[in-house]
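The material for today's practical consists of a large collection of protein records. An example says more than a description, so a record of this kind follows:
***
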Amino acid sequence: MASTGKSDDSNGTPHFDIPKECKAGVVVNEGPDFHVEVQMVPVPEPGPNDVLLKLNTTGICYSDLHFMLNDLGMPKMSQFGVRSPGHEGAGVVVKVGSNVTNWKVGDRGGYKPVYDTCGNCELCWGDKETYCKGAIFTGLAITGTQSRDPARTPEIPAPTLRVWKRGGIAFKPRCSYQQYVVSPSRYTSPIPDGVDDFIAGPIMCSASTVYRSLVESKLQPGEWVVFPGGGGGVGIQGVQLAKAMGLRPIVIDAGAEKKELCLKMGAEHFVDFKESGDVVAEVVKLADGVGAHGVIVTAPNAYNSAIGLVGDRVGAKVMCIGLPPAGTVTLGTDPSFFALKNFTISGTLVGNMKDTARALDFAKRGLLKPIYTVYPIDRLPEAVEKLRRGEIAGRAVVDFNA
């Protein structure tokens, strides 16, 4: 591990040597033929209400690939001036803004998919702040190269997306693919002792996201929940959380490695879609011969069979998490099935501040274990390509200090 650049003054207060530049994963040739390069970028200066985080780790999420591929029907990253994605970082506060009182240098903090919200609407006052019309999305509209001013006005209105201007100049991007990032003090997540950064980083997105989906599904202890793609980065955390919440997970995925991992992490059954003659029939049989109470879809290619997995189960729910390329999937069935089976299809975006805190607490109690492969920052491009090919079990996590 490289030097952390940390020392303590005579009063024991941590002090960090902050460089002028840091390494970052930068997307080149945005679109279907993109690739990622590791480049040096300026270290940002926090504004009066911000903290500067030195990230030790960042997880790599498939949403990052969607942004780089530009296949979600959203504005391009480049439209926001973004060169780097990434939204699940964990590290330490190395500098605080002049107005910040709730953080100090040396505190551990996390960097999430939603960079900030307006904090002053009905959604923000409840548990839906991630849907706030003023939400700023990390790695698409924001990275960490410039501090944020409280006075902001929307530049490009798009569904659930905004890019903000400061003094007439559009914000530079914020992401977790670079080691030093600015984060609003009010929306930075505290990381508790007992949770290392290699698990805390992915919790900022994958674990908190699937936790939110499980909460909104309202599934009860003892009920069957199916995770198509459950051996992936989001799914494997969902399996662990479901088990901890008293549910009975069934995973659909492929390969001996993922089977071993999923069963070890709490799945009661594993169905290999490459070996099974009829995946849907096998899952229905395993779920009491009736069907699943809930299906948490983390793998977009599983939507085609998701409804069939509930079989004849009354009151079943399909929860949508995985994002397919725009225009490639339509999900639904005969309205009579919805009525006669009290069937529901719903979706969730990402976890809110409370969800993130709850997921971190599961990890602190040993109920959410780290399942990841570590890549040094210089091998970030390799990790991205492996994720793109579906070759990573669990999460890929970048170590900025290796």
Notes: The first helix runs from residue 62 to 69. The longest strand covers residues 50-60.
